[in-house]
Structures are given as structure tokens and as C-alpha cells.
Amino acid sequence: MIPQEYIASFAFDQRLAPYDILGSIAHVKMLARCRILRRLDAKKIIHGLQSIQKDLDQGWKIPWAEDIHFAIENELVKRIGETGKKMHTARSRNDQVVLDVKLYLKDQSRLINGAIAGLQKSLLDRAVEHKNTLMPGMTHLQHGQPIFFAHHLLAYAWMFERDRERFKDAARRCDSNPLGACALAGTALPIDRAYTAKLLGFDRVTENAMDTVSDRDFMCEFNFNCALSMIHLSRLAEDLVIWSSQEFQFVRLAEEHTSGSSIMPQKRNPDTAELLRGKTGRAIGNLVQMLTLLKNLPLSYNRDLQEDKVSLFDSVDVTLISLQLAADIINKIAVNKAKMAESCQSGFLTATELADYLAGKGVPFRKAHSIISKMVDDVTRNSGTGGSLGSLSLTELKTYSPLFTEEAKARLSSVQAALSKNSPGGTGKNAIARQIQALKNALKK
Ligand code: ARG
Fold first, then answer.
1. Count of domains in the chain?
2. Do 253 and 356 have their domain in common?
3. Mean pLDDT for each 10-residue chunk of the chain (445 residues)?
4. Of 113, 217, 265, 312, whose CA is between 20 and 30 Å from 294?
5. Which of 10, 66, 94, 293 is the best mutation target for the ligand 1 pocket, counting ligand atoms within 8 Å of the beta carbon and taking the most?
6. DSSP single-letter state for residue 392
7. Burial level of 280, CB count in 10 A (0-12/13-18/19+)?
């Protein structure tokens, strides 16, 4: 004996109800226009569907059925009688379910894009505030070169700009009307698919009925986009976890974004950032589930496809809330400028400046690199990792290369080093100003 719940999708597809109703209203209008349904019947069905939507809006729960499509149809018949049974003419649940999910995803892509833009705006605002906040820029999680905090924040803003483009692009694949594909072969009835497309705001109609009911590519793309956005959030979260550690103390998360330990009274754990990282695993898992569902699946509709929704909805939900949370975290972090500046004193952040200086004087860069590398080794040997190139006098510098002058010593300032990186995309003052303007323009789109 199979429990009914096993074959049912009602437990998870109820969120499609408003789209199912919208789709049915458009379908019925089309049937009437094409004289497949009498005007009076169409009117009756539309009123019935509208009354169901109204009740749903007021929190009424639709009675259980195998899936949301059956649930709405059953309820319609209950409310308007036999006429309700005419609604399913020239349609199948196979094209209907694709329609519902496409409409749902078109809405969700707008919401998610709004949330991404919100996060970008937070990053941008904090970047503007920290145009002059110096910090060590890292590669390999080791001190690399001095940068401004704005540069680091904007790096994320651009990462999320690509996400926004990807969601917009995925929405284009949701923009073709599947309705009228019916079960897999189309119909002999004189339907007008372009008309339903127009009523529902689709850009076009799908070209092959079999492909239409089998296609879940648009869901895979959405799942992938969610997974990648979550991965981006997890990287931001990881930076926040590192920066808020005792060793770094670059930022402090707002009280509301942390929680204490049940036994260690001094603790302020970055739980929200950790959960951003943790929930990313779910989004990746959801993508893999979706891809696995499609692998080797023969055409056309197979019931396996019912399992496409659980993971998709979970990814959409987790991505949306995570983006909103990340924006809130960024808005409220306290930035410890002094600690960031202090950290720039160690780690030989401006060693590259000296190598660049020599290269500018005609020394081949590889050779300049090895001269400075030896200099760093010597200073480290004499004064430990806390040593700095700034401690060397000009006379000492000249023992490494006669080309060094006072000007070279000036290049050792972290602020000057950061300010000077004005190539497009750099951390320098003018380059950052250009980036900020470019991002503002992108966000207007
Ligand atoms: N609940 C089903 C799903 O989610 C709707 C489509 C059912 N089609 C069918 N031929 N059994 O996929």
C-alpha cells in the first residue's frame, strides 16, 4: 500500500497556487476567444477562480489533493459545478506545471535581483565611507599589498553584479509560454498560444511541445545561480569571520548578528556569517539534486520531475533571505580603522613598491624582485617578522642597489603605495572614484 503522500506534491507545490490560477484564467479566456468554450462558461470559471484566490489571500487553506492543480480544479468544481470540468480542455498538468514554475521564477528573479541590488548598495555605501581606510590586501591569506577597504568591499559588489546579470539572463529562459503544449503532442483544437502568452506577459511561445514538458533547464539555471550567489555570500561571510576574529579585529559584527557561548562568557560568535557559509551547502546540494534528476531521463514528462520543486524552492528561499541578511550585516559592521592601519605596518606590504621602483630605473623586474626578496630575508633575520623595510637607512638601501634614492624611501609609505594604484580597476584614489561611479551606473539599470 503506497501512502498518498508519497505520490503527492501538495505538501510543497502550494506556493504555485496564485500562478496556477492566473494561468487558468488566461487559458480560459483564450478558449472562449477561440470559441472552444462558451463565453458564459468562461465567465463562470473565471469568477470561480477569482473567488478561490480571494479566499487564499485571506488565509483560507485549500483542501488536500494530489497536487495544487487538482486541488484548484476540485475546488472550482465544488464552487461552480460541472462547468468547472471544462477548464482543463486543451491542456495537461504537464504544460500547466511548467507554466506555474516559469511564472513563479519570473517573479522570484525580480525579488532576488532586488535583494542583490540591496546588498550591492550596502557595499557601495560602506565603500564610499571607507575610501581612505587603509588595510592589508591579501593573497594566500598573507599580506600582499596595501589597499583601501573600499576596494575590498567593491570587489564583492562587482561579484554580485555578475549574479544580477545571471538572474536576468535566466529569467529570459523562463519567458516562453509552455501552455498549449498539452501532454506532449499539442492539440487538434484551434487554440491560440500567442494570445495566452500575451495575457500572461510571456515574450514568446515554446517551439516544441515535447521539449516544453520535458525542459527543466530553466530550473537548473536558477538553481545554479542561487548556488553561485550563495558561494559568493559564503566568501564574504568567511572574510567577515576572519576579520572579526581576535587575531584580526578589523571589524565587529553588530550585537544582533552575533551570539554568545553557553559556557564561555566572553564570546561573541559571528553566527550569522557562519550560517551564510553553512547554508551554502544546501544550495549546492539542491543544484546537484536537480541535475541528477534530469540525467538519463527519457522524453518527455516523467513523474521524477515532480521532485524538481523541493530543491528549487529551498534554494530560492535560502538565497533570498541570505542576501537580505548579508546586506544588514554589512550595513551594521563596526570598522576598526586603527587596527587595519596598524596591520599594514607588518608583513612587508610595500616590498613590491621597491621592486617597482627599481624596475622603473631600468632593472629587469625579475632581477628587482630577487634584490628586494633578499632585502626582506635580511630584515626578517635581523628583526623577526615584525621588521620593516622602512627601518633601513638610505645607506643600507644602497648596499642592495646604488639606484636607491630618498624617493625610494618615500615609496615605502603604505598610504602612498595604495593611493598610487590608479590603473583602471586599481585601489588608487582616482581608480576607486571611477569604480564607484561605474557601480552607481550599473545599479541604475
Ligand atoms: N504534480 C506534478 C508535478 O509536479 C504535476 C504534473 C503531473 N503530470 C502527470 N503526468 N502526472 O510534476
1. 3
2. no
3. 92 97 98 98 98 98 98 98 97 98 98 98 98 96 95 98 98 98 98 98 98 98 98 98 96 92 77 97 98 98 97 98 98 97 87 90 92 90 78 88 88 88 96 97 93
4. 113
5. 94
6. S
7. buried
